[in-house]
Description:
244 residues; alpha+beta; eight-stranded mixed β-sheet; two-stranded antiparallel sheet; 4 helices; disordered N terminus
Amino acid sequence: MAKRRLRNRKVRYVAIGAALATGGTIVALLPSANAADAKTPDQIMTMCERSAVVNGVKRSVEDFGGAFADGFQADNCDFVETNFETFDGPTEKSSIDFPNCEPNATEAAKVSITWSATAAQGQGKYVSTQQGGGGGLFGFLSGSWVKHKGTLDMTVKSATAGDTETRDVPVGKVLHMEFTPKLQRMTGEWRVRIDADPGSFAVNPSPEQNFVAPDVVEGPVILPGAAGAPGVVDGTSKAVLEDC
């Protein structure tokens, strides 16, 4: 058995030597493409942004600032929603202070308070899903985002809440308003696919490759605006009293 193993190895070496001597090609057998081409989430998101089709929309290289010679990095990218939830966001001070701290004050002061709060419309885990100049994928999330009740298109950068209220400030107290926005969280995956290549005379065939980058996108719950005005952030306003 040992002699046969040695003889097979010798034949293999002779074949390689002959190929080198005649200018032939040696094809190295590598692991599967998916194992060899493992990607980080950020690399997957770059491939998604430079895909030929994103969420069913055909694209050109100009859509992501590429040149004709750059081509596409993947054939298809889809965002697949896996979970959706709403929750209370952080409470923030939304007005200036209104004191009733005069030494000779004997009764509550009636004040008109105008308060305002702003919430970012969307934030994702990756640079390419952020709004603004950092990437162009956020608009593709709108289809998944707006199907939930009372939400704005995700290309809108921020939304506000506010009101003017009349309040009483007791003697020896300082009043201000606080606002707690209601937020929503959409969890899902960006799924990128490179189609199988049957190969040709000069190109080796390659199998289909699939890559997944999980993402979590957050933004405010939006109430419908009045008379066609933009929607406003849903949440709870509260008057807070403190000692002078």
